């Protein structure tokens, strides 16, 4: 087949051009993202029980839903939050790759089964099921820069004119409003006037429900009608009301004797107010409403950001005067910058590889042939990536950067061998044929080994498997195309264009060749001496293995490196029960510190919102410190450095805990960087006991050197000030009272009650009852509330029971159905996340009482799962490599010789990581797997040629020496091409630099050491093992002769 292409260079070139054109087309079709789809699919179930406490919500809403949802197919774990604002939020995480639509349908069916167990008011307000990534992709703020538009109008403009258009955009999973003041018809009750008039809160509820209704008036003249009826005319009846005046006219009571009426405005203040007043948002100190855009699973983040930006620019053309928007938080900025840097790194690597090839081949025409293999192989790879549903992401592009040094290898081997045959005096056609006879076997063998290393890795499950998948297959596909090109295009072009050139004209090249000639012959002569010192070499080899193991044990590990993503979070927590006003004061002080920090571009604050539990809490806030672009910040203003710089100032803010966190390495795996640790109460003890156990664990863990004490905390608390209403039920019944009326009265006055709806601006809004501000400011206001008994008498609530001060949780969290407390933390400087995880587990086992346990969640859960998978990945690579070689050469000893080079590569990789103070992470683990194939590739080139020379009659040592001499040049060419190709990764800067440095350092150190030591150890191992094998099989040694002295 190879002769066919040698004689038809145009045919071979046409195939390469077709591959390149197809890849170029697919480039524009491939989506772009930071990572492959590695985030576990998540379904969010949300419900609301207005006025209910966290405990009531947990008992009556969350628990019935959890009991039905638990065990849904594909579920990894389930977390829930029940809050004092009456909200219930359950997040179900599924295995990576589980169909999100199937998961949503399964959860919907389970929720339907729980509907009958939920309170009627919860069913009335509705239980929602949504599929989404639980982290924002884009935050858009809307405000009035000149204060010419009141904030309520700004907020409702966002709700009426912007929210729905954004929700309709492709790729949007959800859009939520933070700090909004959505309209609600607020009926602020005056309990004193109501008591004087003998009207109860339940009376008002019933009358509004009766009189604010949608009615169908019918038609005059509707068929069947008398003959000659000329028209049909619609009857419009004022049923549903629409403005405060109409609600104020509602008749609560009419005296049929006197005709006197009591209207709603007589006992209440009615206004077009806001549904919620529980949070506030600022952007650079300006009150704003924020639209949080969530990405839909499987969508393209960059496309989503672009669509949101385009839509906002379009909508802003219609903004009323005095309203402006800012896209102040954009996670895709990092993706765009990182992808740009990776592409630049790819071009740098390409230039360095071409330079190395030119230095060795010393001829532009000769250099072009292996250079052509690079774009053809890489661009053709895009076709298969598109067919496999891949994206252009950090991992697939890193695979292409590393593949540059691989795809050029086979072409270098072909061209170098053709040139050697031309120097021996053969004409181009014959030289190409003979060269291909020698190198076809090694090319196929090395390609098979690389495919055997990478392809099995692609089928590993979980997040780690998804991270390996696209990298591994990208490299494998490019290597396969490279082998195809080296057996078709490269020999065709070599036969057509290569000619014997004689001595090079440039003195530099002649000096290089003279030195290399002396090096190769001196190297070949040293092999025999090294064989005589075999035992010393074996001792050195064992020392290398021991050093590799020692470095493996000493090098810390983590899941993913901490990247500068262009922003960091600040989490604010005040004492339990702190008002929204107090939290806003602390947030303003924190914002001043952040905005005064060099490198910070702008700051957004969401007050009254717990970012870690996604629950409304008056004593919590979160801030987003968005940094200037990477090229506008010096290295010392990296995100982690700025976060560490502001931490001491934030910790000095009185009356609050203010902590800064890095964002998670993968969006959707946790709210912040660091670890997430769940303490679980298996025995059903009190929330207070769970809180005490959690705080004791935190206090002990802060003493551990592996854990950063300033970033270890839990927002779970059971000391939120509360009141218990101790109702005397016997007395209530003796007085003829209806218990639901008592509890409804409490809810209406002190909580709020959604009665029904009204229409405004073409939308439906809620009618809400609640006591006016002055009537619910203290516990003594209970004496102002009355209910009516069966005899029509008004009974004050303070005679039926009293408020007793107590404490309780602001939110109640469950993890996998058990009451739990979430602990957030991070490793101390100089320690890895794996060391921090081990320290937390050690402390938890000795500190937690009986009936308590712990589990990891978020990115830490995936890190622990990936830890066991890493060893499996490496073992699989070795096993498949060994079996492929054994099958190809029908030998058990040859694969063993080849794989002896792998520990040498690992020694170099671990040494490089250790010298640079870096950790073992997913990227370096990918590098380890890659080094298995790279180290084996060099060993195959030597052993394959040694085997051929042995079959031709050379003795074992002479065959090893000649193979080492003949293969030294292509081995060094390919090694230097690869090593210099990854050099830009080692010293990468900007967005995504940490991941590029990790994999670049790993493969640079591994390839450098493996190349040097493989040239020493592999020929000796071949000679010794082959002598031992032949001795066992009594195989004759063969004819003795010296290796040829000439090239």
TrEMBL record:
Topology relative to the membrane: Multi-pass membrane protein
Recorded GO MF terms: efflux transmembrane transporter activity; xenobiotic transmembrane transporter activity
Annotated TM spans: 12-30, 342-361, 368-388, 439-459, 471-498, 535-552, 869-889, 896-916, 922-945, 966-987, 999-1025
Single GO biological process annotation from the record: response to toxic substance
Stored InterPro entries: AcrB_DN_DC_subdom, Acrflvin-R, MdtF-like
Cellular compartments annotated: Cell inner membrane
Pfam families: ACR_tran
The protein's name in its UniProt record: Efflux pump membrane transporter
GO cellular component: plasma membrane
UniProt keyword annotations, A-Z: Cell inner membrane, Cell membrane, Membrane, Transmembrane, Transmembrane helix, Transport
Protein family: Belongs to the resistance-nodulation-cell division (RND) (TC 2.A.6) family.
Gene3D superfamilies: Multidrug efflux transporter AcrB pore domain, Multidrug efflux transporter AcrB pore domain like, Multidrug efflux transporter AcrB TolC docking domain, DN and DC subdomains, Multidrug efflux transporter AcrB transmembrane domain
Domain of life, source organism: Bacteria
